[in-house]
Amino acid sequence: MTQGSILITGATSGIGRALALVYAEPGTALALTGRDTERLKQVRAECESRGANVMAEILDVQDSQPLADWIERVDAWSPISLAIANAGITTGTGIGRTRESRDAATRIIRTNVLGVMNTVIPVVDRMTPRGRGQIAMVGSLAGYRGLPYLPAYSASKAAVSVYAEALRAQLVGTGIAVSLIAPGSVATPKKAQFRLSQPLEISPERAARIIRRGLARRARVIAFPRVLYYSSRLLPYLPGRLVDRILARVKADLPE
């Protein structure tokens, strides 16, 4: 395991699971965590069947100390060379729910923002003395312009985007690369419950391949599909009232 380990949070479903499988190959050391015991067992078994060495643990990224303790154990097992802070949850508005509940919004921020920081900070502490490593954080195209049916989620991903930018600048010269992953719609099991038009939706497997290629280049931003990325970047420069009216017409019914 001289190349070090690859740590992935939220590895039991969606993009996290697909990333675990796309990196699973003979000799690779994978450190996987998630909240679902049975699904984590399944992912671990699939990765090991492909020849990977796997260390897996049931954890909630909101719990900072247990997560930090596990990261310390992973690094002792095989020094972390790549950490992908992927764990995240989604909520939004829907029929009969024109506002998000306070509890739902709070869980979004604790998981999507604090969970990323809880993962990244102890990893940076271990990579810095070695002078090498790579950190990736999963944001979203929704982080570039708040969506009225995903207010807390959009805010959380905007925070991840800014945090990645700040950390990248902070780590200049340390040998540690920082990448922001900003997907559009990916066909995860959770997304199957959404009643919402999701243009250019792609599979988790394709998303994982795109992400792996971007991380191999140590890309600063890995955003896809490109047409939606450029559209998202353009929106802030359009008249705000016009964009608000257009987005307000989108009909969405999302589970809380």
The radius of gyration over CA amounts to 18 Å
Based on CA inertia axes, which overall geometry fits? globular
Strand content: 15-25%
Taken in chain order, the helices and strands follow as EHEHEHEHEHEHEHH
Q: What's the total helix number?
A: 8
Mean pLDDT: 91
Q: Structurally, how many domains make up the residues?
A: 1
3D structure, described in words:
The chain is 46% helix and 16% strand. A seven-stranded parallel sheet has the order 3-2-1-4-5-6-7, with helices on both faces. It has a single domain, classed as Rossmann fold, CATH 3.40.50. It is an alpha/beta fold and 256 residues long. It has helices spanning 14-23, 37-49, 64-77, 102-130, 151-170, 204-216, 226-234, 240-248; strands at residues 5-9, 29-34, 53-58, 80-85, 133-138, 176-183, 221-224. Strand 6, helix 6 (204-216) and strand 7 (221-224) form a beta-alpha-beta unit. It contains eight helices and seven strands, in the order βαβαβαβαβαβαβαα.
Write the layout of secondary structure elements.
Elements: E1 5-9, H1 14-23, E2 29-34, H2 37-49, E3 53-58, H3 64-77, E4 80-85, H4 102-130, E5 133-138, H5 151-170, E6 176-183, H6 204-216, E7 221-224, H7 226-234, H8 240-248
Parallel strand pairs: 1-2, 1-4, 2-3, 4-5, 5-6, 6-7
